[in-house]
Each structure stands twice: as structure tokens, then as C-alpha cells.
Design brief:
The chain has 470 residues and is an alpha/beta fold. The protein has 17 helices and 20 strands. The chain binds flavin-adenine dinucleotide.
């Protein structure tokens, strides 16, 4: 009897997690299609002048599901570093440590800010019921001061929308300290004696975050999975409510693979548009309504051992266009004397003029921003390079759920095709969430290649409890 053929679309953590999990059972023929030349998607790494860097600040959070963490530990061995978090947030022109620490807050928090938060805590019982936007939910939970000084301007920069235009679900999924009580608990967790395991720490692979995906890829490949690089999925063929085949295109060839099951982790609108025959017009229209925020990553290569001691700087203020600056060397402890790289994150729309700005212009933009933030670059700048992510964050504009549900319902009617991962479920999820989805999807497939949709529906409900960590 022939082995069930499984096509996996995308070789980010979600696709590779499913590939490895399935390959370990030894009963499927698994093929992965990846449009890029390397693995990892947004969670990949690449080399700059000998130093491995990521697509923006990436860390593996200790809240990672134990089974997945155990797999990553086994795959990476001693290369998986356990590191303390050591970042800073710029607030009203001052720096506070991130994660928040009681003594540091007392020393560095602007007095006006502290008084504002205290006042907000006192009037909390009088606050109106939560409304129907990110702004109203957060303001009810955290009060005016924290929202106006941190979350609201940060949201405008991150998602390009006024906080009132953003769906309330963004507050639930994207803000782990959504109330003053939760925030107080997080601050208390910095105090020895109150510290739960993993608080204030993160895992990071010695060779960059992408080493996680590379290790999954190598293990899956050894177990017989075939990965087609530089191969863009162009169509998913379906007939009579069943997916039948995947078509993909590379510089060398056009491929067509008949499959029993398609596991898609590419972006949801792209998957919908790839359906052959086409999805009904209402579903295609719904795909057009889902929007992503893009991001330019601007790397400054400096001739200095180190820029600062901090892993990341966060900039909520609107006069500073970047949202975050990370220094990869402070994550990986790489030994690269005399040079370091900074990575600045600039969220934008692909229609914005900045999207087509030159590397030189973007380098100047970052240098100017750091000057304004009073952390000017003094070391010689060797060079600037950039990378562009077209789909960095899904945008939860109020009303996004309706088109999403319409697509979801339609895809649910096609057997042999499921979609998951950060792009595939239009979610803000962390890598460990994407891997949890991948493992769940693989476990829903039986040895004959039949997918247990009831079990998957239960997993989908679990995924709704994912809360993103930064
Ligand atoms: C700036 C930034 C910082 C982040 N920081 C963290 C962090 O600190 N910790 C954390 O856990 N997570 C973080 N994340 C999230 C993390 O990057 C994602 O959770 C992870 O990449 C999701 O993996 P995925 O496989 O679902 O999707 P992706 O990584 O997006 O992978 C999808 C893959 O599909 C491929 N693809 C797309 N279309 C096609 C096509 N038509 N044909 C073939 N292949 C295709 C892509 O090339 C890509 O390789 C961050 C994300 C961003 C943007």
C-alpha cells in the first residue's frame, strides 16, 4: 500500500515543526515547499560580516510548551543558551528597565508618570465598562497614563491604526499585562523569593534564532522529508470538497504533487487566492480584507565591541519612528571582537515612501532616531543593510473577524487542506505557538492520511488562548 502523501506549504517554524513531527512516525511521504532559499521564515537568521542576525528581536520564551521545549533542547544541545532579559523602555525621555523591576521603577520612572498611574489605580472602580476597541479595553485595565504614554503610541507605530480603530481582541492576545494587577504581579516577579521559574529569562540559540528552524529542518531531512527551496506554491487544486494536488514553481521547474493532505502555513489570503478552481467571490473578497503590517529591518554594522549592554531598546514615543532596536551579540554572546550589529525595526505599509527608501536613507533615519533618544552612535559605521518583511504583523482592525470567519468556514469545507501557523491563521503568535499548532496538526493525521477535523476544532479553540510575549 502506498504511503499517504503530505504537502507542507512553507518552511518556517510551523511548517518544519509539522514536517519533523510527521516524519518521526515513518509512515508518510512528506514534501515541503518553500519560496525562500533558507528555512525559518520570519524566525530565520542570516550572516552579516560573520555575525548571525535575526529578522528583528527574537527570543524563545520559557512559556514554550514543555514537550516542544524538550525537543528544541534535544535538537540544539548546549547551543541553547538560557539568558537573562536585559532591555530598556524609553518613557517620557527616561529609561526604565524591561522586564520591569521595582527598584529601577522607583529610581527612573518620571514622577508625573508614577502619580498618574497611582491616580488611575484609585479611580479604577469608577471607570466605565470595557468598550469595543483596543483603546477602551486597555484603558479600563491599565488606566489612562500607561495607555497614553506607552501602549497607545506604540500601537499606532506597530499597526498603523489609532487605538480606537483596533479590535479589542488585540488587547487580549497581544498584551500579557492587561490590568494593573497583572502588571503589579509581573513587577513582583522580578523580586527574589517571588520569582517563578523562567521569569525575566529567555532561551536563545548560540547561532541565532534561526538555528531552531535549521535544527528542525536537518532532523526532518534526515528522517526523509524532502524540502523544495526556491519553490513558490502557485495553486492548490481541489474538486468536490477535497484537496487533490499542489502546484509550485521554481526557476528550474514547474512541480505538481498529488497529495492526500495539504498543511498550509503560508499567508491565509495567499492560500485563498491559490485555490484552483477559485474560491467563491465572497471568499476572495474576504481575503482582500485581511491586511498585514510590513516592516523594514535596518542593520547598522558598527566597528565597536559593543553598542550598549542591553539586548533591546523599546521606543513607544511617536517622535522616534522605530519601535525597537536590538543588538544580536547581546543575545548570542557571539565572539566577534571589534564589530557589532544593531537591528532597528521600522513598521510601515508597503505603500509608504519609506518602503522604497535606500539603505543609506534608512541608516540616516536610524542614526537620527538614536540621537533623539540620547543614545547616539559614536562608533564608526562600517555599512548599513536592510531586509523587508511584507507580512510582519496581521492587522486586527475592528471588523477583521467577519472576513476571517468567512474564509475559515469555506476552507473548513475542503477536506485534505488545513491552514495554521502565524501567517496561516492570521495570528500574532510566537514561535512556540506556531510549533504547538504544527504538533497539533500533525497529531490529527492518522496513519491512513485521514485528518481528524473534530480534534483539530478542539485545538483551534486552545489556540485562541495564546497570548503573545515580546
Ligand atoms: C519583528 C518580529 C519579532 C518577533 N519576535 C519574536 C520573539 O521574540 N519570539 C517569538 O517566539 N516569536 C517572535 N516573532 C514571531 C515569529 O517570527 C513567528 O512566530 C514565526 O516566524 C511563525 O512561524 P510560521 O512558520 O508560522 O510563519 P513564517 O515564519 O512566516 O513562515 C512562513 C514560511 O512560508 C513561506 N512562504 C510564504 N508564501 C509561500 C508560497 N507561496 N510558497 C512557498 N512558501 C511560501 C515563507 O517564505 C516562510 O518561510 C516575531 C516576529 C516578528 C515579525
Amino acid at each position: 500500500m502506498s504511503r499517504p502523501a503530505v504537502a507542507i506549504l512553507g518552511a518556517g517554524p510551523a511548517g518544519l515543526g509539522a514536517a519533523l513531527r510527521l516524519s518521526r512516525r515513518g509512515v508518510f511521504d512528506v514534501a515541503v515547499f518553500e519560496r525562500g532559499r533558507s528555512v525559518g521564515g520570519n524566525a530565520g537568521s542570516f550572516e552579516v560580516d560573520g555575525l548571525r542576525v535575526d529578522y528583528g528581536s527574537h527570543r524563545l520564551h520559557p512559556s514554550c510548551q514543555p514537550e516542544i521545549l524538550a525537543d528544541i533542547r534535544t535538537l540544539l544541545g548546549a547551543d541553547l543558551l538560557d539568558r537573562p532579559r536585559h532591555g530598556r523602555i524609553r518613557l517620557r525621555g527616561r529609561w526604565v528597565h524591561f522586564p520591569l523591576q521595582p527598584l529601577d521603577l522607583m529610581r527612573n520612572l518620571p514622577v508625573g508618570f508614577l502619580a498618574g498611574v497611582a491616580g488611575d489605580a484609585l479611580i479604577k472602580p469608577l471607570r466605565l465598562k470595557a468598550g469595543d476597541s483596543f483603546a477602551s479595553v486597555l484603558e479600563r485595565g491599565l488606566g489612562r497614563t500607561i495607555c497614553r504614554d506607552f501602549y497607545f503610541p506604540y500601537a499606532v507605530k506597530m499597526w498603523g491604526l489609532a487605538p480606537e480603530e483596533i479590535d479589542p481582541v488585540q488587547a487580549e492576545r497581544r498584551v500579557s499585562a492587561g490590568s494593573l494587577v497583572k502588571m503589579a504581579r509581573k513587577i513582583l516577579h522580578a523580586v527574589p523569593g517571588f520569582k517563578p521559574p523562567g521569569a525575566g529569562r529567555f532561551y536563545y540559540p548560540r547561532r541565532g534564532y534561526g538555528q531552531i528552524s535549521e535544527a528542525y529542518f536537518e532532523a526532518a531531512r534526515r528522517a526523509g522529508v524532502e524540502v523544495h527551496f526556491g519553490t513558490t506554491v502557485t495553486a492548490v487544486e481541489w474538486r468536490d470538497g477535497r484537496a487533490l494536488a499542489v502546484r509550485a514553481s521554481s526557476a528550474e521547474a514547474e512541480l505538481r504533487l498529488e497529495t492526500q493532505q495539504v498543511l498550509s502555513t503560508i499567508s491565509l489570503p495567499v492560500l485563498v487566492r491559490a485555490l484552483d478552481p477559485p474560491a467563491p467571490p465572497v471568499v476572495l473578497e474576504a481575503a482582500g480584507a485581511l491586511r498585514y503590517r510590513a516592516m523594514i529591518l535596518i542593520y547598522l554594522v558598527l566597528e565597536a565591541d559593543r553598542f550598549t549592554e542591553y539586548d533591546a531598546h523599546y521606543f513607544p514615543e511617536l517622535d522616534i519612528p522605530i519601535t525597537r532596536l536590538s543588538e544580536p551579540k547581546n543575545y548570542s554572546l557571539a565572539d566577534a571582537p571589534g564589530m557589532t550589529v544593531l537591528c532597528a525595526e521600522l513598521p510601515c505599509r508597503t505603500a509608504d515612501p519609506v518602503w522604497s527608501a535606500s539603505d543609506g536613507e534608512l541608516g540616516q533615519l536610524v542614526l537620527g532616531a538614536l540621537e533623539r533618544a540620547a543614545i547616539p552612535v559614536r562608533a564608526p559605521l562600517r555599512r548599513v543593510l536592510t531586509r523587508r518583511l511584507e507580512q510582519a504583523y496581521p492587522i486586527y482592525r475592528r471588523g477583521w473577524r467577519e472576513p476571517f470567519d468567512r474564509i475559515d468556514e469555506f476552507l473548513d469545507s475542503i477536506d485534505g487542506l488545513i491552514t495554521f501557523g502565524r501567517q496561516g491563521l492570521f495570528a500574532h503568535d510566537n514561535t512556540h505557538h506556531a510549533l504547538a499548532m504544527a504538533y497539533a496538526a500533525a497529531d490529527c493525521l492518522d496513519e491512513q492520511g485521514e485528518f481528524d477535523r473534530r480534534r483539530w476544532a478542539a485545538h483551534r479553540l486552545e489556540f485562541q488562548s495564546h497570548v503573545v510575549e515580546d
